Amino acid sequence: MTANNVLLVTIDGGTDVYEEGLEAIQSLKEGESVDRPARLTVPNEKVLGEIFNERTYALLRVIREEEPSSIRETADLVDRDKKNVHEELTRLEALGVIRFDDDGYAKRPVFPYDNLFILVSEANTSTHRGRG
What we know:
The chain is α/β, with parallel strands linked by helices. It has five helices and five strands; from the N terminus they run βαβααααβββ. Helix 1 links the parallel strand 1 and strand 2. 23% of the residues are buried.
């Protein structure tokens, strides 16, 4: 497995949280080699949960395993409304998680990575214990 085949999702509460991840993802999209995995950094656990939830995992699994030829077919495979699936896939594309390939008049969603890793380090969690 090479770093180019991996999307690494991390949590960082800094002010410019998406820049490094989006730059690496854009480099991969342009066919450039990157010495590190593509990286998407989110500001906190709440945003992580909004992006990667049960519906998202179902979409990514279907895209990877079934290779649907369109957004409509993807929606049918997950038994969801086409409009909602389109909105979610468009958001995932904007974040660099998926891409769309033109297939005639249809947009075929593609998960271009072999693996997706979500790294939540102890330093990034917001669990505080009080005394008393």
